[in-house]
Recover the amino acids of this structure.
């Protein structure tokens, strides 16, 4: 079995806008119902997949640091661009993880 190793590169606290540009839904225990989990997000983490492709994961975490949603992006630059589009978070608000 092939394990994926990741390295956390950057993190940022975030507040979801009143009218978010993207929404995330999770299938509910109730048949044919989905719960909007968009507003649970309070922290973002960019992690490098460490597989030589340059691809990154964008982790959206709640206030307990539990994963709410994860998306994959082509590069750190593209991930930060997407976060600026989705949350309005500028480049200078990211914090590097210490190596």
């Amino acid at each position: 079995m092939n394990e994926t190793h990741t390295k956390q590169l950057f993190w940022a606290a975030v507040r979801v806008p009143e009218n978010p540009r993207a929404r995330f839904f999770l299938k509910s225990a109730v048949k044919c119902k989905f719960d909007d989990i968009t507003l649970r997000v309070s922290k973002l983490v960019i992690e490098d997949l460490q597989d030589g492709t340059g691809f990154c994961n964008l982790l959206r975490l709640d206030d307990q640091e539990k994963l709410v949603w994860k998306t994959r992006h082509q590069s750190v630059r593209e991930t930060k661009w997407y976060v600026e589009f989705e949350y309005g978070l500028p480049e200078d608000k990211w914090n590097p993880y210490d190596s």
About this structure: The beta strands are 7-13, 25-27, 34-36, 43-48, 56-61, 67-73, 95-96. The chain has a mean pLDDT of 90. Residues 7-96 form one domain. The chain has one domain: 7-96.
